[in-house]
Design a protein that fits this description.
Blueprint: E1 6-15, E2 20-27, E3 31-38, H1 44-50, E4 57-62, E5 67-75, H2 84-100, H3 109-120, H4 127-141, E6 162-166, E7 170-174, E8 184-185, H5 186-193, H6 200-218
């Protein structure tokens, strides 16, 4: 049995049997792990109260196969209470990680990235900038990021130039004659590289690019958490 305690966050929980739940948990230094937790017996009240999203946990687990077993857990700090749009953003972070971060692969920095952006949600109402920064950094960690600093020739992106993105290549600088409806201003690319989303045009471009890059990883199944942002 592994008695080492790891910092962790619960991303997703669903029933597995009458007495067990299946959990997707993001573990510090380990990555995303799928495990079973017993929810009945004398600890059932504790499980229901504390084994919740957005709460930093200390956990131990065991098992040599892909499916692990949660042995013990405790809260690692005060409750992190999210509400309103911050809560919606938290659900989005969780669903995105649960969907695209591979299970049982040691992508160590994902926990650090998730923890950082989760902690920012109650501190700032600039949620869109937080989500875009998280998306681009997560894609980079997973090996699907794109370079916003240099073009395909290895030259730095120029503020007054125009570019077009080509899959598996990068940004191709356009001549004046080649500028078309898909051309992107170099200044906006520089802004994204610096995670500067103050400009509305940069925000719109960043959202389009992040969705384009995430689509192959998410497949045809839409993110349920995105529906929370749609006003009735």
């Amino acid at each position: 049995m592994n008695n080492q305690l790891y910092q962790a966050y619960l991303l997703h929980k669903r029933p597995f049997s009458d007495s067990q739940a299946m959990l997707d948990i993001l573990v510090d230094g380990v990555g995303q792990i799928r495990m079973l937790a017993r929810l009945s017996g004398k600890h059932s009240v504790k499980h229901k109260a504390q084994l919740q999203p957005f709460q930093k946990l200390l956990i131990s687990f065991s098992g040599n196969k892909d499916l692990k077993y949660l042995n013990q857990f405790e809260l690692a700090g005060p409750l992190n209470l999210l509400s309103g749009r911050a809560l919606y953003c938290g659900f989005y972070l969780n669903e995105l990680c649960q969907r695209i971060v591979p299970h049982n692969e040691p992508i160590e920095q994902v926990f650090v990235l998730y923890n950082k952006h989760l902690m920012l949600l109650p501190q700032s109402d600039d949620y869109e900038a937080n989500l875009r920064t998280f998306e681009f950094q997560l894609l980079e960690l997973l090996g699907y990021g794109i370079d916003f600093e240099f073009d395909v020739e290895g030259d730095k992106i120029q503020e007054k130039s125009f570019y077009q993105y080509h899959d598996e290549m990068g940004w191709l600088k356009l001549s004046r004659q080649e500028i078309n409806e898909y051309a992107v201003n170099g200044k906006q690319l520089q802004n994204i590289h610096q995670f500067n989303f103050i400009d509305s045009a940069t925000r719109n471009l960043a959202k389009q690019l992040s969705r384009y890059l995430l689509k192959p990883l998410l497949g045809n199944k839409p993110l349920k958490s995105r529906e929370l942002f749609i006003k009735p």
